Fold:
Amino acid sequence: MLVRLVYTSRASEALTPSTFEGILASSRKNNPPAGITGVLCTNGVVFLQMLEGGRKEVNDTYNRITKDPRHYDVQVIHFEEITERKFATWSMGKVSFDRINMAILLKHSAKAVLDPYSVSGNVSVALLEDLMATASVAS
Ligand code: FAD
Structure:
């Protein structure tokens, strides 16, 4: 059974490129053997991540991520059973702040700020889909 889980969290310290790359390196090492795909978006202050895969694998990965000291205030904002993945080709695609088109943020929220805490989970899923559609997701 495939599921999609989306969560948001706050970076414990101002996110450096090397910390972000370290997180992505762990993701790219661990996610393929677990059949996990998805995308990780950040503006350096908050994270927005979508995990797709088997229900057990997504839960195991999410539970591991929540214990990571590099972020806090981890909140699930969307969870659903799915029949197909949106991000099948990414072991963990990345979207960093400098690649976010402000117009895409404004399309989905009152201000051009990435703040998944203040919008519905469905809005954050739509934002991630738009980022994918506009080639803002890098491998
Ligand atoms: P390794 O990847 O080998 O890392 C070794 C250990 O060092 C781990 O315990 C790790 O937590 C720790 N570590 C490394 N760098 C730092 C640092 N700068 N500060 C503190 N501790 C550090 N993991 C996934 O597998 N898939 C994901 O999709 C994923 N997404 C993540 C998203 C976010 C926002 C964050 C913060 C972390 C994410 N992680 C992800 C990392 C996850 O939390 C675990 O650190 C990782 O899965 C542990 O993998 P590992 O046991 O193979 O250890």
